[in-house]
Amino acid sequence: MPGLWIRTRTTLEMIKWEHSIFALPFALTAVLLAAHGWPAGRTIAWILVAMISARSSAMAFNRWADAELDAANPRTSNRAIPAGLLSRQFVLGFTCITALAFVVAAAELNLLTLYLSPLVLVVLLGYSYLKRFTRWSHLGLGLALGLAPSAAWIAVRGSLDPRILVLTAAVTLWAGGFDVLYACQDFEYDCKAGLNSLPQAVGIPAAFWAARAMHLAMLGLLVWFGFLFHFQALGWIGIAAVALLLAYEHAIVSPRDLGRLNAAFFTMNGVIAMVFLVFVAADLWLLH
Questions:
Q1: What is the pTM of this model?
Q2: What are φ and ψ of residue 120, in 5° steps?
Q3: Neighbours of 61 (CB within 10 A)
């Protein structure tokens, strides 16, 4: 039992389960909008299974695919596989099991989610290899998170409303922007290892401006989204709160000082996602 607990804890740490807070609130926002309130408990349950299993599979596969790169990078050399805490075979097996769980959850929702599940897995797993080919790999990660609201909408409705794609685009730019900032930590290693990233390609100062541009575009898309779904006062307050939180996130880091990057990346982005969900949910509640 102690060994099982240690392996479970190590696996949860490997997949950063607590970071599910990034995409999940945007998926739940789409669920509430698609259902005009709260959908059936069964639907919510399978959406949660799909979200958790998809993200777990993607994170585990990333650790498996990047094991050698992580071992050579001082910042990541203590991750589970390079540190010898988990074997590559175990991590690959975990990836397969969670991917299968995602497909089962998709099948329990509706036919369209089942048919699209392999394509979603291609995006989620394929992201891990993008930095070997393109400086725009950050948008690949962004899309992996951005698919969440569109997928959740399909899970509830069984069809896709083009309006929800605006939220998918917003989340893609939001996540892509903060991944650009996060990649600044690995500037020297990426240059040495021949890996592609926006900081590696254009330098850290220019990468910061690119991240700011992505986040400004994200805010513009959220405003468009608010008009499309006829937000009332609380919905607009939520978008304003997201803007203020993003401004604070950019204020606490700079090209010359990355010391608070983890606070910006992990804490603030989780808060941003939850704030948006809470205000949109409250806005819907007032309408009903």
A1: 0.92
A2: -60, -45
A3: 25
244-247 own/partner pairs: CB under 8 Å, 24+ apart:
245/271, 245/272, 245/275, 246/215, 246/218, 246/219, 246/272
CATH node for 2-287: 1.10.357.140
Spatial contact of 140 and 126, defined as CB atoms under 8 Å apart = yes
- Report the alpha-carbon distance of residue 93 to residue 124 in Å, rounded: 16
* pLDDT band of 258, cuts 50, 70, 90: confident
pLDDT, tens digit (0-9, with 9 covering 90-100), for 222-247: 999 999 999 999 999 999 999 999 99
Residue 254, beta-bridge partner list? 257
* Structural tokens at position 288: 């009903």
